[in-house]
Amino acid sequence: MGLRARRIALGVLGLICAGTLCARAQTAAQPADYPVASDARVGGDAKQTRFVVDLSQKVEIHAFTLPDPYRVVIDLPQVTFQFPDRAGERGRGLIKAFRYGLVMAGGSRIVLDVTGPVRVDKSFVLEPSDSQPARLVLELAPASREAFMRAATVDSRPARPPARASEPASPAASGDPRPVIVLDPGHGGIDSGTRARDGSEAEKNLVLDFSLMLRDKLDKTGKYKVVMTRQDDTFVPLADRVRFARSRNAQLFISIHCDALARGDGDAQGATVYTLSDHASDAEAAKLADAENRADVISGVDLSVEPDDIAGILIDLAQRETRTFSLQMAQHVVNQLKTAARMHKHPLKSAGFRVLKAPDVPSVLIELGYVSSRKDLKQLMSEAWRTHAGDAIVKAVDGYFTTRLAGGTGR
């Protein structure tokens, strides 16, 4: 693409993106200020199932349904979840399992995976009484597909949660000339990501800890302006992560994840670096991308209302050059990371990750290792390993920008 054509395309993209993004400043309260959800239980059978949550105080709730897959979503004000370990992994009656967590500042969500189409017969919260806590109660009964779809269509759902803005203003607007790097810790809040086979460690926590460390190392160089899509245990929809990077005119987007294999799927281990491609480099890459792209479904976001951010022709024009830069960054990461970490036997791959689809921001996704591998998990938990791996990624970033700036290709 010629320079003039690229500038025109990116200018149009910027105008369209600006019209779709709304930045909000959030003031975080202390955990002690929030109601506590201390326990959850499921009772009943396939004819009627009751879901109950114990709360420290009465709160307002809103329950609605979503199809494909069938889910019941309960939105409530931000609460501190103190459920027993592995709560929600198994259900009963009409409820197969449930997830819970923060979806935005001030808002929590519980998502019930149900066995088929259901109707919400009752949803209410009881006041605390005597020695009994406040109780959230939801009663479900079977329904036809047609009735379920009618209810899901007419339900007045609240607006989908916005991305948490780690920085209220664009660094470019403040006159900071340094390249902007967006670090994207995967998952968060209601979406735990993968887990170690014993259930002890969640991906969302491992990658957040690593990303915070990496941010500090990049900041320490003084060369870059570093912002994060999330800095705490908050859910951020995939599209909002992309919008976040584009709204800050990011020159590089790095998404941090861990992988896992189901029992019997092999014993893969080591770090892998991914770039965007419409055609996955192998079956494992395709399977991983499909799993990661389901994050919004896990959180209860209605993907049917997700708008197209930009026209397809503009995406194609802008992404041609962007994908070249993304591959260059990925190669730098592989070359540096192999000096500090065990690498996958095929360390450089590509797949259709939604989070890498910013058409004008070079983007890579780094899988630090497999939490299903004891060796990898031990490394991921090691401060010394994280330090070495972080230093290697900083060197990769330095090499990438040195090459781009020397070639006069920096945006």
Describe what is shown at a glance.
With 411 residues, the chain is an alpha/beta fold.
Number of helices: 9
Q: Helix share of residues?
A: 25-40%
**pLDDT averaged over residues:** 83
- What are the segments in which pLDDT stays under 50 over at least 5 consecutive residues? 1-30, 159-169
Cα separation of the termini: 14 Å
Q: What name does CATH use for the topology of the largest domain?
A: Aminopeptidase
- Count of distinct strands: 15
Identify the CATH architecture of the largest domain: 3-Layer(aba) Sandwich
Domains, number: 2
Order of strands in the sheet with most strands: 11-10-12-15-13-14
The ordered H/E elements are: HEEEEEEEEEHEHEHEEHHHEEHH
Structural class, please? alpha/beta
CA-atom Rg in angstroms? 22 Å
List the helices and strands and how they pair.
Layout: H1 3-20, E1 36-44, E2 49-55, E3 62-66, E4 71-77, E5 80-81, E6 95-104, E7 107-114, E8 118-126, E9 134-142, H2 145-154, E10 180-185, H3 203-221, E11 225-228, H4 238-247, E12 252-259, E13 271-276, H5 283-292, H6 295-299, H7 312-337, E14 343-351, E15 363-370, H8 374-380, H9 383-406
Parallel strand pairs: 1-5, 10-11, 10-12, 12-15, 13-14
Antiparallel strand pairs: 1-2, 2-9, 3-4, 4-7, 6-7, 8-9, 13-15
Helix pairs in contact: 1-7, 3-9, 7-9
